[in-house]
Specification:
Chitobiase, domain 2; TIM Barrel; Methane Monooxygenase Hydroxylase, Chain G, domain 1; six-stranded mixed β-sheet; Hex-like_dom2; GH115; hydrolase; Gylcosyl hydrolase 115 C-terminal domain-containing protein
Length: about 1100
């Protein structure tokens, strides 16, 4: 069976391409007509075009793309920026999965389907209370969906159910009702009995007296049954986010149960759920506002919504809110804020645990140091022990997961010189409490190795074998440690604690969603593959606005087998369809896909005015343009969204996207404003005013959120986020308590520039010329023309960008227009447009586009073209020169790869020219080789590459190190010391026995494996690179490749671990690599013309 993966990218001159890798174990990659047919099928499916290959492309343009094949890769070139938005290959190896489960109901009648819209709901009266709670919700759901409130009947051994043509019968496998149907009507329950959280559906004739046909949902246990009920509601038209995101119920007059049996579960991760954390100011002020109070406890009313959401997402686990506070003190206490909370959780079917530093079912805020002394095991052991014992007694028989160990006061390191010995004693005492209070009752127990506790584990501290070890991330989305060796065989298993928000160093991120789904998928998939599948707890902050990534994580935890990177666009389409309807699902998914890509570059709160380069590669300009385009598309779609979906669209799409774009506009605008002011541009003032307008608009968006649905969500987006990040401040890592706008710059618009410089400014892209002219001395700085700091463009070559730009701008009295004129261009193959014009108060700047007709440039041309420019009026006759270096050296006709241009070569890792398989006798499915990982890229459009299969790559170091990908490059000059910068998707050394290494070698040089990360100060802690680089989302590493002669060369990339994901390689060939956040855009490939 032939399969493929599809990658996407655009070069910086908008010359797009699709890269497809074909994989087949029995046949060679397709060629000739077979290849052309497959490519066209894919192209048509992606762009939605139904025309023949010879037809026109109404979306993409009028000319078909050119196709080129090499080493199992197809490169489809297309000079159109729209290609960057193409996302899904038609013949992907992955089938489409319904969100969330195999369908067992539909909305069109078919043979043997059963309309359950008016069916009676029937359950065993003695079934679990949680089942009846879920059925009560189903009654409400069905009434909203169909307009008919279904009858509900509790069946008992001696009861008679009123006659009904149809029914929906729900029960756990142990209920008398299900046992009766199984025994008398042949319902097979063997595929659910004795399993964890499994449910089955089937249509049964005459299941019980009085019912002709029924949809039967049978669960293996309490939650299996509950999940079956909520999945029926979801598939019928009720979103899990119907309350939390105000998703409208989809109306259906008829709901048809399909005539087939389905089995769902068991979950891939046994316990999975959320941690409500860092809940001030947003969550607490929102909930208080709902009750017209300055403070209101998180009671059963609140938690019933939380429990309902978890169960509808097929989750089962909770760390409740626990943040300390002095307004009022002591903060949230799940167990006592409303004494009914704990029992309600058990009634619903939610497993309550406590956070990593709250042992023995006690909230930290319950400890009163005034009454019971310090939280110090050495000094106050008896009181601490009594405190813990009370928590276990209160827990009783409720289904719980007990946190073991202890940390110090206020979530700090434990007090004491010998933490390991203290914790060993704590474990022993805690285990003794279980015996004294609960006898032989089995207790779920967990120890979270968070922060310094991870160093204790690395130093040899280990809890009893039946305790689950929960392994955290670094608070920023990189898991620190995963099970190795016999750790996977522990009776208690292993789990993970993962952050979708964080309050802490080096910078907090609490405001909005900044969780890139491909990165989340990478980390969570690896956790599952490594055996951390007992508990997944996600730090979800205020719950809103993290609906999308949390739902994604819970879907993954339910069934890992449905996920891989190339299904993310389809997942988002299905998500969009569920939440916002089918009419605009494709458009919404495209917006969310672009949003995910942009937030993957850097979390919002880490973005500052100087993050993206305002000087090089049009970087800041390009990123801001993408955000603005996305925001405008989001606003346009808002006008088309049906009225009843507008609130949900605002919460799930509009606010995250538009507020994110506004955040970027404020920060990048501030950076551009400062640069323009230092260049003395008149436009600096307009930029400052625009930034101020954007700053105000940001709060307009918050107020619009507050006004939704008569104030239902007032204050939920009250977290401040805009400020200047000053690394010199002691508390710089904290979120601001109020938004501020600072460091705007203005020029004096009525003042002329110094006469020897003139009022016309020239910015050749990447040039510091106008900045240097901001300070000038006639006695030492030559001008008219400027020679000391000239307006010179980066080199232009056939392999570089097809267009370079020059900006002309006013930098004098705004009341006096400037007329400018280019001189004659000395060569007929170079064009600059426009060639003349006027700058005035209505048009303070003009961009010139410089292009070259390379078919007319003499072979081997290597010179700088100079074009003069004059302007009037001018106190002193104005004359300057625009300098355009041009190199027209060509690679050999048989070269396929990346030539240098403008002193660098930039390569996105999926665009390799050759790959190898490991030299062994494994089957094709076990062969270790590099594969394309689509969408996982913070510095690339096309994703990254990594070793697969995952387990095979970990099992054989020889196979892993033997695998490679190669990139062909071409140098036009000898280089005595060629240097490379590599960009590796951020990840940590999760296996102390397999520390991540890479090798980048040139030509025949031997492999030179080097550690990706250094050793932490203390084993188990973050590496030394972490503090300075974690906000960047990538690790950048410098590699010296040695001497390289003019001509063709080959770079070879190898790694030792499947957890090393290469994004990008950049070679500095002649000092051409300039400072930027993202690195140079990808170079153009040669040999595909």
């Amino acid at each position: 069976m032939l399969s493929s993966t599809l990658g996407l990218a655009t070069s910086d001159d908008h010359y797009g391409f699709l890269s497809m890798q074909f994989k087949d174990e029995q046949v060679h990659p397709p060629r000739g007509q077979e290849l052309a047919t497959l490519v066209w099928q894919s192209w048509k499916s992606v762009c939605g075009c139904r025309l023949s290959p010879q037809g026109a492309f109404p979306i993409l343009g009028t000319s078909p793309p050119s196709l080129h094949y090499t080493d199992g890769n197809v490169i489809i070139f297309r000079p159109d920026p729209f290609v960057a938005q193409l996302a899904v290959c038609a013949f992907s190896k992955y089938t489409v999965h319904a969100l969330l489960e195999e369908k067992f109901v539909g909305f069109e009648p078919e043979d043997q389907t059963l309309d359950i819209a008016g069916a009676t709901l029937i359950a065993d009266a003695d079934d679990f209370l949680g089942v009846h709670i879920a059925l009560k919700s189903l009654v409400e759901d069905f009434e909203q969906i169909t307009g008919i409130r279904p009858a509900f009947n509790n069946a008992t051994t001696n009861s008679t159910v009123p006659a009904s043509a149809t029914g929906v019968i729900v029960g756990s496998v142990g209920s008398k009702l299900i046992r009766q149907i199984s025994a008398e009507k042949g319902l097979d329950i063997s595929d659910v009995e004795g399993r964890w959280e499994v449910f089955k559906t089937a249509v049964i004739a005459n299941p019980i007296a009085g019912v002709e046909r029924a949809l039967v949902i049978v669960g293996s246990d309490k939650r299996g049954t509950i999940f079956g009920i909520h999945t029926l509601a979801e598939q019928s038209g009720q979103s899990p986010y119907h309350w939390w995101a105000d998703v409208p119920t989809k109306k259906h007059a008829a709901i048809f149960a399909l005539p087939k049996a389905t089995v769902h579960g068991p979950p891939s991760v046994k316990y999975r759920g959320l941690f409500i954390n860092d809940e001030a100011p947003a969550l607490v002020t929102w909930w208080a506002a709902q009750h017209n109070s300055s403070y209101y406890p998180l009671d059963t009313e609140f938690y019933s919504h939380v429990f309902d959401l978890l169960l509808r997402l097929r989750a089962n686990y909770l760390w409740p809110a626990m943040w300390g506070s002095s307004t009022p003190a002591p903060g949230h206490i799940f167990f006592t804020d409303d004494p009914r909370n704990q029992q309600l959780a058990d009634d619903y079917g939610i497993v309550v645990s406590t956070s990593h530093h709250e042992p023995m079912q006690r909230a930290t805020n319950e400890w009163n140091a005034t009454e019971t002394g310090p939280w110090d095991w050495r000094l106050n052991k008896d009181n601490v022990t009594r405190f813990m014992e009370e928590g276990i007694r209160r827990m009783g028989n409720n289904e719980s997961y007990v946190t073991l160990g202890m940390r110090g006061p206020s979530d700090s390191a434990i007090v004491g010189d010998d933490a390991l010995e203290i914790l060993r004693e704590v474990f022993e005492v805690e285990r003794q409490i279980f015996k004294e209070v609960l006898g032989d009752q089995k207790v779920n127990q967990a120890w979270t190795i968070y922060k310094e506790v991870a160093t204790y584990y690395a130093a040899g501290l280990s809890p009893p074998d039946d305790v689950t070890i929960i392994m955290p991330d670094d608070n920023h989305g990189q898991i620190l440690r995963l099970p190795t060796g016999n750790e996977t065989a522990r009776e208690g298993g292993a789990g993970i604690y993962f952050h979708f928000e964080y309050f802490g160093r080096p910078r907090s991120y609490k405001w909005s969603n900044t969780n890139n789904l491909p990165k989340v998928l990478k980390e969570l998939l690896q956790a599952y593959w490594r055996g951390a599948n007992q508990v997944w707890v996600i730090n979800l902050g205020d719950i809103k606005p993290l609906e999308q990534p949390f739902g994604f994580a819970m879907d993954l935890a339910w069934d890992v087998s449905k996920f891989d990177f190339d299904m993310i666009p389809e997942y988002l389409r299905l998500y969009s369809e569920r939440e916002l309807g089918s009419e605009h699902a494709d458009d919404v998914a495209a917006l969310l896909m672009e949003f995910n890509y942009l937030i993957g570059m850097r979390r919002f709160e880490m973005v500052q005015p100087d993050t993206y380069s305002v000087l090089n590669y049009h970087e800041a300009e390009r990123i801001l343009a993408r955000w603005n385009l996305l925001a405008n598309q989001t606003k346009t779609l808002f006008e088309q969204i049906p009225e009843d979906y507008k609130a949900a669209y605002y919460e799930l799409v509009f606010y995250p996207v538009v507020s994110g774009a506004t955040y970027y506009a404020v920060n990048i605008g501030t950076g551009l404003n400062y640069r323009h002011a230092m260049e003395r541009r008149n436009s600096a003032n307009a930029l400052a005013h625009q930034v101020l307008a954007d700053f105000d608009y940001d709060y307009d968006l918050v107020q619009d959120f507050d006004a939704l649905l008569d104030g239902k969500w007032r204050n939920i987006m009250s977290q401040a986020k805009l400020e200047t990040f000053d690394t010199g401040k002691a508390k710089n890592w904290m979120n601001p308590s109020r938004d501020i706008l600072s460091n705007l710059s203005f020029v004096q618009l009525r003042q002329n520039m110094q006469f020897s410089v003139g009022n016309l400014g020239i910015y050749a892209e990447g040039s510091n010329s106008p900045l240097d002219q901001g300070r000038w001395a006639e006695s030492i700085d030559p001008s008219m023309p400027f020679t000391k700091s000239p307006a010179q463009l980066p080199e232009m070559s056939p392999y570089g960008p097809s267009r370079r730009t020059v900006d002309l701008f006013m930098r004098g009295d705004y009341r006096v227009p400037i007329d400018w004129q280019l001189g004659d261009i000395p060569v007929d193959w170079l064009s600059i447009a426009p060639s003349s014009g006027r700058l005035d108060v209505t048009a303070e700047e003009q961009r010139l586009n410089v292009t070259i007709d390379w078919t007319q440039v003499p072979e081997g041309y290597n010179d700088t073209v100079e074009v003069g420019i004059t302007s009037t009026p001018s106190f002193y006759p104005y004359y300057d020169i625009i300098r355009i270096p041009v190199q027209n050296r060509k690679v050999p006709t048989n070269f396929r790869g990346f030539p240098e241009t403008a002193g660098y070569i930039s390569i996105e890792s999926p665009h390799f020219q050759k790959s190898s398989s490991s030299p062994n006798n494994r089957t094709a499915s076990e062969t270790v080789a590099f594969v394309h990982v689509p969408y996982l890229g913070t510095r690339t459009e096309s994703g990254s590459v990594a070793l697969r299969p995952f387990h095979a790559a970990r099992a054989s170091l020889l196979d892993s190190k033997s695998a490679y990908v190669e990139y062909d490059i071409y140098l036009f000059k000898d280089n005595p010391a060629l240097n490379a910068t590599i960009y590796i998707n951020a990840g940590l050394d999760t296996d102390p026995n397999l520390l991540m290494e890479f090798s980048l070698s040139l030509d025949d040089a031997p492999q030179n494996f080097t550690r990706v990360l250094g050793d932490p100060k203390d084993a188990g802690d973050v590496p030394p690179e972490w503090t300075d680089n974690v906000m960047n989302q990538v690790w950048t590493k410098k590699v010296s490749l040695g001497e390289a002669k003019e001509g063709a060369h080959t770079l070879r990339w190898s790694v030792n671990s499947p957890e090393v994901y290469l994004e990008k390689l950049v070679l500095d060939t002649r000092g051409g690599v300039k400072n930027s956040y993202l690195g140079p855009p990808e170079s153009n490939m040669a040999g595909f013309d």
